[in-house]
Amino acid sequence: MNPGRFITFEGIDGCGKTTQLRLLAEWLRKQGRTVVETVEPGGTDIGRQIRKILLDPANTAIHARTELMLYFASRAQNVEEVIRPSLAAGHVVLCDRFTDSTLAYQGHGRGLEPDTILALDRIACHGLRPDLTLLIDIDLETSLTRARRRNARSGQEESRIDDEHASFHARVRDGYLALARHEPARFVVIDGRAPIDAVARRVAEEIAARV
Ligand code: TYD
User: Fold this and answer.
1) Are 8 and 133 in contact, with CB atoms under 8 Å apart?
2) Which atom of ligand 1 has the smallest separation from the CA of 98?
3) Distance (Å, whole) CA 153 – CA 51
4) Which of 15, 77, 97, 151 has most ligand 1 atoms within 8 Å of its beta carbon, as the pocket-test mutant?
5) Which domain holds residue 72?
6) I need a labelling partner for 87 at 20 to 30 A (CA). Which of 165, 170, 200, 210 fits?
7) Cα 41 to middle of ligand 1, angstroms
């Protein structure tokens, strides 16, 4: 039996990880693997309801700790309902964001204590950790340009988080790079400024070498 593999995609807004996750899913399916795609926050019916609260631009009154617990509430549901059962069945699970997002955004971005975040992680995830994390890294300018383009194209209002100041995103990016330096065996950092197909090839090479 093929053991399940838990692979997460991380990076600042506009880095292209969602596109890369889809391309990797297609590629793995061509190799004959069963792939389960999921997303944080979201990924389950309950998670999608929580996601609405988190990303609603009207919710300016949300406290940083409230936000933190809602991200973990969505994650706990995803772990129990989707991720663990899929891994137990031997599938490859690709997750768009996981606890590294919380460490980067709520920890480095908003200044919440990493110990608090890791304590909630133990409650929500019961020790489940990604086997491999692909950090799609772009600089801040590229992130802001892509976010503006994306919002203009979809005619959408910017999400509450996209709205925030550039210095916040700079801290988040630095946080991600620090996490990757701290755990080089789990993280692969991939330059997300290259064309989509070039990034996809890099991702597939890394997966082929490791999974
Ligand atoms: P989304 O529209 O899915 O953005 P993206 O396509 O960049 O993933 O919104 C998710 C937002 O939630 C994103 O700005 C990052 C933020 N987030 C956190 O702040 N903490 C978390 O733990 C997670 C999972 C996401």
Assistant:
1) yes
2) 24
3) 22
4) 97
5) 5-208
6) 200
7) 7
Q: Count of domains in the chain?
A: 1
Nearest protein CA to atom 4 of ligand 1, as residue:
13
How far apart, in whole angstroms, are the C-alpha atoms of residue 58 and residue 129? 33
Q: How far is the CA of 19 from the centre of ligand 1 (A)?
A: 15
Residue 158 has phi, psi (to 5 degrees) of -65, 145
Summarised one tens digit per residue, pLDDT across range 138-177 is: 999 998 888 788 778 877 665 555 556 789 999 999 999 9
Sign of CA dihedral 81, 28, 48, 45: negative
pLDDT tens readout for residues 43-63: 999 999 999 999 999 999 999
Give the up-direction half-sphere exposure of residue 46: CA atoms within 13 A in the CB hemisphere: 13
Bridge partners, 3 (sequence order): none
Against a cut of 0.90, is the pTM above it?
Answer: yes
Can you give the CATH number for the domain in which 161 is found? 3.40.50.300
Tokens of 54: 């988190």
